[in-house]
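=== Structure Prediction Worksheet ===
Name of assembly: unnamed complex
Input type: mixed (protein and possibly other molecules)
Chain count: two
Listed entries:
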Amino acid sequence: MSAAAQTDQPLLEIRDLTVDYRRPGGSTQAVRGVSFQVARGETVALVGESGSGKTTIGRAVLGLHHRNAQITGSIRFSGTELVGLAEAGLRRLRGRRIALIPQDPLAGLNPVHPIGEQVSESLRTHGLATGAEARRQAVQILERAGLDDAANRYYSYPHQLSGGQRQRVLIGIALAAEPDLIVADEPTSALDVTVQRRILDHIEELVTQSGTSLLLVTHDLGVAADRADRVVVLQHGQVVEQLPAADFLNSAEHPYSQRLAAAAPTIDSEPLVTQLPQTQENDAAQPLVRAQGLTKTFPVSGGGSVTAVDAVDLTLRPGQSLGVVGESGSGKTTVARMILGLSDPDAGSLTLAGLGHQDYRSRSGRKELRRLIRPVFQDPYSSLDPAHSVATSIAEPLRALTTLSRSERQRRVTELLEQVHLPSAAAGRKPYELSGGQLQRVAIARALAVRPKVLVCDEPVSSLDVSVQDQILRLLAELREAEGLSYLFISHDLAVVRQVCTEVVVMRHGQVVERGATREVFAAPEHEYTRELVAAIPGSRVRQQV
Amino acid sequence: MTAAAAETVSEGSPGNPAAPPGVRRSSGTLHYILRRLGQAVVVLWGAVTLSFLIIHLVPGDPVRIMTGGGEGGEGAALDSAAEAQLREQLGLDQPILIQYFDFLWRAATFDFGMSYSTGQPVSSAIATALPVTIELGIASIIASVLLALLFALGSVLLPTQTLRSGFQSASLLGTAMPSFWVGILLLQLFSFQLGWFPAFGSASWQALVLPSLTLALLTAGTLGQILTRGLNEALAESYADTARAKGISELRVVLRHALRNASLPAFTMVGMMVGGILSGTTIVETIYGRQGIGMYFVQAIQAQDFPLIQALVILSGAFFVIVTLIVDLAYRWIDPRVVAPQEHSSTKKRSTAKTTATKAAEKGGTR
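=== Predicted Assembly ===
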């Protein structure tokens, strides 16, 4: 964020750090001989995929590692050795000189205490203020952290605030005692892209003003490139490369960093899909999904209702890949559910695969709909039955919707596994034996089993690491061509949508604010909101400088 | 529009996108209490109806059973005039619907007639027994909660894993031992051998110690396990790390941040324990010779004293209903997220429905 202040001694110096998790029957080495430094006023990003050890390092700096973790090596903070320091010594540093902004703003605050009390606790713990004075200061801190109307919100509970507001409270807690170093562990990954941008801007401003150092743990390479001075790339618990953030996306040297940088979709990555040529044949083809004036309202407890989807028109033609983009609460998932026939519109007309509303409501029509339009959901861990083998899960729609014999089903499962590039040995495995990316492949295979025409993908890659995400997106692009599939692709991630969608619809507050061919919408967004979304895509800042 | 306001709109508050927080709280609470009271009346009516039916569902003639005779046989001991008189007294000569409404009315006015075995009015018998049991119940629950807290805090705060698991296993012991055995054991040791506490009666506070301890040991193990589990879950939550990162001690993290979150499931259990006081004290009251409700239950059943049984069934039901209501209301005090539980449950239902539908769609089911 700011240029590294020139002082003789780094604020944080980590040397040969090793963290072992001891378990009954062995131990796992999460961090192996990691060394790096953070200067005063510097922002260093730790990037890597799940299992790279980045979070473990962040915890170790705070002394908040798990009870079973065995730490060797050295963590020197401002001249004090933290490895082996007694709990009481660590407590004096924690919160006072080293603070944490935790990962998930929705879970990071105690649900049963008012937010103001949670902030003033930071002050009271270190004897910086007590009673009414602590309360007064906490309000100021919350204001500084960007929480509107902080004085009146002092006694609010976390559930009464939005995700972005909660993250501001957590920032307030971290900043309260004016620490020298803040460890921010994925501080915005649970937030919408525009909120994420505002929060990151705000953190940046605050640390720059106060000269605080920031250790930013993130899987989002765009965020790292935009926000850090230096990037430390981790793989399997080891540092593979350290380089200035400005060079990271363009001139990383280590193959792994290059691979990471290449896999991260940004605003100018090459799209994976090409638009179908505009032929008369294509235009004349009957749309697979046709929604007009689609509206859905939900009752709000205590009277009234909220319009989740407000007069939305949508058309999905054969061969198209239509992205529906929007932030939480924009109504995109509600649209997907109606198109899957899982929920009924309150108004408007919806024709699905040539079936009118009345048709697909009937038992046989519903069966037809289930065959033609299939879902792929966000979290493969919860969308696959943990007790069923992969083969059983994939074959389930075949049993329900077709009359194939047992051996024919087995043949089809083998075929499908091959199509999604899974070894045939995977058929007998249970979900817990597979990785997230493999599970999402299984979910796609299951969706493909009955040869549907449309896949409705609801955030299919947002729980995956970038390199895995890239593989799944490539698989989807490949399958679209091979199978002649059409996609309805729901996502909050514009960079992802840009890669796999030929058309895009931007939703906000239940309404469509912009639509068109993906390339055009992203190159020249017309609606102000779309412009804001595009500008908020992480990684764009570095590009602009180059 | 300010930044934060824009966030509120775009992100919404979870589960309830557009509603401003806190607005519906008071009216929601009143509505909720009224609804729960309505439900309580329905449950009570069910309990009264069931206890009315007891007398008619028992095979054979209720009057004969009451008078100690079986089917015919010795029942002939009572002459037909006395039998008719009893029949009239119990209202059994009336049409069943009249009997039912009469019973409902008497239940509503706490008039349960005369106890057949003691000859006293049922309500006065209960009035003398109830305080004895309530006293025991309260003492045992306090003891149980204190023991459970001790178990749970030890199980999460002791310094080594061995100590923690040892402590946790020890808490299981109480649950594993049957209360009649524990009761006799405690009697042997503290009354007969050491002579610290009286063995029988319900006159002094000393007489309360052993029976309440017997009851508490049984429940404290389970309660402690629930609390330990809740504490461990809470301590693994992200907010516990936020708290630790402020530099506060683990003890304070446990007491101030984890305990209240962990106490919700334990609180449900305490509610059930309280609700079960009236019917759960039978064994202990028998061992220690306390003239409480549990003792009466046994006597009433042995003597086939229908009016007393009916009254006790209704009383237990009413007690349970009231306690459950209090527990549910207290939930909102412990956890501020429980703004109005009826919303909570309906959202839950909706999301369950969603999951089922979603699963069905994935599997190709047609519902």
